[in-house]
Write a structure and sequence with these properties.
- There is one protein chain.
- By secondary structure, the chain is mainly alpha-helical.
- The chain folds into two domains: 148 residues, VKOR domain (de novo design (two linked rop proteins)), CATH 1.20.1440.130; 46 residues, no CATH class.
- This is vitamin-K-epoxide reductase (warfarin-sensitive).
- It is found in: Endoplasmic reticulum membrane.
Length: 208
């Protein structure tokens, strides 16, 4: 008999929330990219998010920390293709979260959670730079930090302990009869189908 195929079912509100968060993240990242390009062309350009000397997003975007997180330029060189504006990485991240979030596999849930942890760590790092080094408040930046944290919560909700057990240990280390009994007893099973030689485990995260 083949190993179980673990699929994580997501409620409609989670899919809607992810769609809105990711689309807003892409939109803000695109605007940040636009501001940086315009500022590079015209030093007198003033963005909508440039409220005052201490509340300026263009000041942040054009700083050394606005490209490659202030780190990749030192590692790969300022002219390296890896040293892109942070907004480019933001566009890729939100698009990745949106597209991969449409899948229902446990592997996807684990990848989404891992990248979310990295994004939250990056937000904390950039938030520190923003407040203590640049001594500035960037409304657009802080908004993306909040979006990253919301995605982290959504991904945490999706990923559960049972999916990690299935994914990491597989059929070689687990007696599947015991797993079936445990999952059924846990009360978080929405559907357990026996179809030919494949078990489909559908977890409703709304019950967690």
């Amino acid at each position: 008999m083949a190993a179980p195929v673990l699929r994580v079912s997501t409620p409609r509100w989670e899919r809607t929330a992810r769609l809105l968060v990711c689309l807003l993240g892409v939109a803000l990242s695109l605007y940040a990219f636009h501001v940086e390009r315009e500022k590079a062309r015209d030093a007198s350009y003033r963005a909508v998010c440039d409220v005052s000397a201490s509340i300026s997003c263009s000041k942040v975007f054009t700083s050394r920390w606005g490209r490659g997180f202030g780190l990749l330029g030192s590692i790969f060189g300022n002219d390296s293709a890896m040293n892109q504006p942070n907004s480019v990485y933001g566009i890729c991240f939100y698009a990745f979260q949106l597209l991969l979030g449409m899948t229902v596999s446990a592997m996807a849930a684990l990848i989404l959670m891992t990248t979310s942890i990295l994004s939250v760590m990056g937000s904390l790092y950039l938030g520190y730079i923003l407040y203590f080094v640049l001594e500035d408040f960037c409304v657009l930046c802080v908004t993306t930090y909040v979006l990253n944290f919301i995605l982290f919560l959504l991904n945490y909700k999706r990923l559960d302990l049972i999916s990690i057990v299935f994914l990491c240990f597989g059929q070689h280390l687990i007696h599947w009869d015991h797993v079936v009994l445990f999952v059924k007893a846990s009360g978080c099973v929405d559907q357990w189908d026996m179809q030919t030689d494949v078990w489909a485990y559908v977890l409703q995260v709304t019950n967690l």
